[in-house]
Structures are given as C-alpha cells and as structure tokens.
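User: Modeling request: complex.
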Amino acid sequence: AQKVTQAQTEISVVEKEDVTLDCVYETRDTTYYLFWYKQPPSGELVFLIRRNSFDEQNEISGRYSWNFQKSTSSFNFTITASQVVDSAVYFCALSEARETGNQFYFGTGTSLTVIP
Amino acid sequence: DTEVTQTPKHLVMGMTNKKSLKCEQHMGHRAMYWYKQKAKKPPELMFVYSYEKLSINESVPSRFSPECPNSSLLNLHLHALQPEDSALYLCASSQDADSFYEQYFGPGTRLTVT
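Assistant: Request completed. Predicted assembly structure:
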C-alpha cells in the first residue's frame, strides 16, 4: 500500500494564482516526520520543510505555507501568488523509525506548471 | 553550507564498461544514501551508509557496488549494467540515519546505458 499519496499528478496554474498541493499519508507510528521537497527540471531535490507528528501548527515561509492535520493524515502545501520559478515536481515524504534505520517514503510527486 | 556534490553530471556507458559515480558532502553528516530515479517517478532508495557502514541494501543487483571510503565520500561502482539501469542517480546525506533529519540531495548523475 502506498504510504504517501499525492493524488494530483499534474497541475497547471497561471502566474500569481494560489495553488495547493495535497499530501495524504498512512502510518501506525505515533512518532514520525513529514517532508516536502521540490525537484526543478535540473534534477536536484531541494528540501523545503520538515514537520514532526507532534507539532500541528501551520507553518509559513514567504509565499509557502503548510497545513498539517493529523485528523485527516494530511500535510498540504500551498504556494501563494505562484511564479514561473515554482514550476517543478513536488514530493511529499514520510519518515518512520525502523530497526535498520529510519525509512523514508516518497509520494509519487505532483508536477506543477506555472504559466506566465 | 548544505551542499552535496556529485560527479559526473552525465555518463554514457556500454553494457561491458566499468564506471564509478562519486558523491561528496562536507556537512559532517554521518548518513549517506544512493537513490535511483526514473523519469516521472519518485526516488527509489538503493543503499544507506551509516557511520561509514552499509546499513541498508534494498535488494539491489550486484552490478551496483557501493563504497564509503570515509565519512565525506560515497561511491557507486557500476559494472555490466543493463539499458534499464538508465536513470538519474541521486546521492543524499543526513545528520544520521536513525533520527528524523532531512536528507540533502546532490544534483544527480544522469546515466545512460547503451
């Protein structure tokens, strides 16, 4: 079963629109962490945010904001006033503890295109 | 500095060649990772090194051979690859493999096997 689901495969928005990328995760652990990464066409995954399972406060960083809701197992990412440079594939990821070391589970990614 | 470097950026090799991918980080991280990523797919974990010891091998074929010469360097030796091994190979590092630290990724090596 997929541990991290990003149901939106591709999204296109016009520049300056707001866009929300959905992420739903599945875990039985009480302690876990959630992440978002951005992968522009150049290929490098860029770390955006890490959030632990005990901290449900929403986070804002410039035009980026994240909404963590344990009740719905969701960790959604909103870009406000989107720009062309935001065009990329965005991955949500879950980290759980395992005996062999923490396991990282990536979602399938959402490809965002911002049209000028 | 949160930089992970990888060389080469691009590599084309035949099925009988032997080549190596290199990865380096100077963040003092004690965990390093190799991932394989096919187009339009998420990264797939291949290997994890924790304190210079191989801790996870995700059932990767023996034609891929990882090596961690020291805490800053990670190599991936390639031999007798198949065309389906063509992919983006990403290296990552984190403070350690047992806590929930974020992983920092390098730019990747785009490998084409002919």
